[in-house]
Amino acid sequence: YTSGTTGKPKGVMISHRSLATSSIAHGNAFLMDVNSRVIQLASYAFDLAVLENLTSLVMGACVCIPSDTQKQDFVGSVAAFQANWAFFTPAVARVFDPSDFKTLRTLVVGGEAITKKELSTWRSTVNLILAYGPTE
């Protein structure tokens, strides 16, 4: 489904070919490979889950799926799984300090604009990639 920004979400058919090629393109653009340990945080109903799950598998990465209980200790979950790749919204990135995430190497941020302060806070410690959703 689309995000519904025009008032009502609409179902959109996506072919296997489109999904496969976009997974490879996104995986390459977002520095995901066989050494990536991707922390899976998005709801399965949200399109980001395709990136965290399907793209990770297509790229040969490890998908790290914390339980609901583990997700309550966000920093601990990333550490326990030794996750080195994550997608945060800027609002989530704003709450944490990069030093909280010792294993994180690549951070993709999207869903809203990132501020200069957040950009400077994170870019010196991780490969910071700015991304928006597929319909923005």
TrEMBL record:
SUPFAM superfamilies from the UniProt entry: Acetyl-CoA synthetase-like
Pfam families in alphabetical order: AMP-binding
GO terms in the biological process aspect are: amino acid activation for nonribosomal peptide biosynthetic process; secondary metabolite biosynthetic process
Positions of the AMP-dependent synthetase/ligase domain: 1-136
Entry keyword annotation includes Phosphoprotein: yes
Give the UniProt keywords, A-Z: Phosphopantetheine, Phosphoprotein
Q: Which domain of life is it from?
A: Eukaryota
Keyword DNA repair recorded: no
Give the molecular function GO annotations: phosphopantetheine binding
GO-annotated cellular components:
cytoplasm
User: Which PANTHER family does its entry note?
Assistant: FATTY ACID SYNTHASE, NONRIBOSOMAL PEPTIDE SYNTHETASE
Protein name in UniProt: Nonribosomal peptide synthetase
> Which organism is the protein's source?
Xylaria sp. BCC 1067
